[in-house]
Amino acid sequence: MEKKEIMKEQGKSKRMKILLIAASVVVFFIIISSIYIYRAFHATNYPDGEPVVVTIPKGASFSAIADLLYENTVIENRFGFYLAGRLLGWEEQIQSGMFEVPPAKSNYELLKDLRHGRLRKVFDVTIFEGFTVNQIAGQLQRRMGLDSTRVVQLATDSSIAARYGFEQGSLKGYLLPDRYRFFGDYTEEDVIDIIVNEFWKFYNDSLQRRTEELDLSIYDVIIMASIVEGETSLAPEKPTVAGLYYNRIRRRMPLQADATVQYALSDEPPRRLMYRDYRVQSPYNTYLYRGLPPGPINNPGRDAILASLYPEEHNYLYMVTDGTGGHTFSETYNQHLRAVRQFRQLRAERERQRVLEEEQRNAGGSNEE
Q1: Do residues 184 and 241 share a domain?
Q2: 185 and 96 in contact (C-beta within 8 Å)?
Q3: Is the dihedral of CA 89, 91, 93, 95 positive or negative?
Q4: Which residues, at least 6 apart from 66, have a Cβ–Cβ distance to it below 8 Å?
């Protein structure tokens, strides 16, 4: 009996040892796993690195996203990132797009940011009032790296214009100037779509009703607005300028807008117009042809469009620059001639002053020698 008891006790002791070893292994495994999982969530990736720009394609699997981030040195441990994403259940919630990832991001922070799109690369692009399609295309190329040729093609494609409700075969005049924020993965088509939709948001039902009240088409308004935009950059002057041109149209007088002549000379850089320029043969030369030109000469801003819809009522028919950035407006031709003489006198005086100052600078330089 004693021998049996001893063997029984020994068996119990052996089983206890096995259980203790197994428990120790399990505890050890839990501790190691917990440490690994903690590190998978919270260890920082490349704390001393530089921001990395990476593009996650639409429809990419979570495994492919993990590969992409690892290959672009955004994450140090692919499996740790993959494990964290699966444990969080966010593997199907990662957004696509171009992301700029700063250094020292943990996998948890990175997953959270990618899930909410917080790191998406954004470009601030300003389209200035009066920009032409080519200038807009150049701005998008400089700021975002878009293909300027493609932008021009899209803006001048009649089928695309028709898609947005424009029957004139082009988006010229409808690319509304503003400060835009575009995501880095936007295509040329995406950007054009946003800009044109911004135009329609602005040109709402109220403005369309006003267009009908004036017995004009939206295209007529945009052409007029583009001329107003080309003639003055001062918002308070724009309704006055618009009223002046409407007065000339009602009297069947040519608009004689210098901005349209500049447009007709678009192959040349902007410069002071010469007498010969006013004879250039072009339907956009409003010195030779009455009425509105065949299309917009630029993309007008909101102020110019509103001025063309709500022009100032007055009897002005003429205007000339006043030499200070604004214009002098006249009702009669004789008044206009006086204003022209005053401007020319001012310009001559400024030229004399410039020459005098230059001579004084040159004299001062000679004395120093």
Answers
A1: no
A2: yes
A3: positive
A4: 75, 78, 81, 82, 85
- Condensed to tens digits (0 to 9), the pLDDT of residues 142-171 reads 999 999 999 999 999 999 999 999 988 999
Give the range of the structural domain holding residue 149, as residue numbers without chain letter: 122-202
In one letter, which amino acid is 124? Answer: D
Q: How many domains does the chain have?
A: 4
Tokens coding 302: 């909101």
CATH code for position 90: 3.30.1490.480
Residue 14: inside a domain: no
Q: How confident is the model at residue 214 (pLDDT cuts 50, 70, 90)?
A: very high
Residues 6+ apart with CB under 8 A from 150: 188
Final residue belonging to a domain, choices 180, 202, 224: 202
Bridge partners, 98 (sequence order)? 55
Half-sphere exposure of 159 (CA within 13 A, CB side): 1
Based on its alpha-carbon atoms, the radius of gyration of the chain, rounded to whole angstroms, reads 35
The answer to whether residue 35 is domain-embedded is: no
Per-residue pLDDT reduced to its tens digit, 21-51:
766 666 667 777 677 787 878 888 888 888 9
Do 185 and 55 touch, CB atoms closer than 8 A?
yes
* Token output for 345: 């006198």
Closest C-alpha to 129, from 299, 261, 263: 299
Domain boundary among 185, 202, 219: 202
Phi, psi of 180 (to 5 degrees): -110, 155
Percent of the chain with pLDDT over 90: 73
Residue pair 208/221 in contact (Cβ under 8 Å)? The answer is no
Residue 284's Cα: distance from chain center in Å? 29
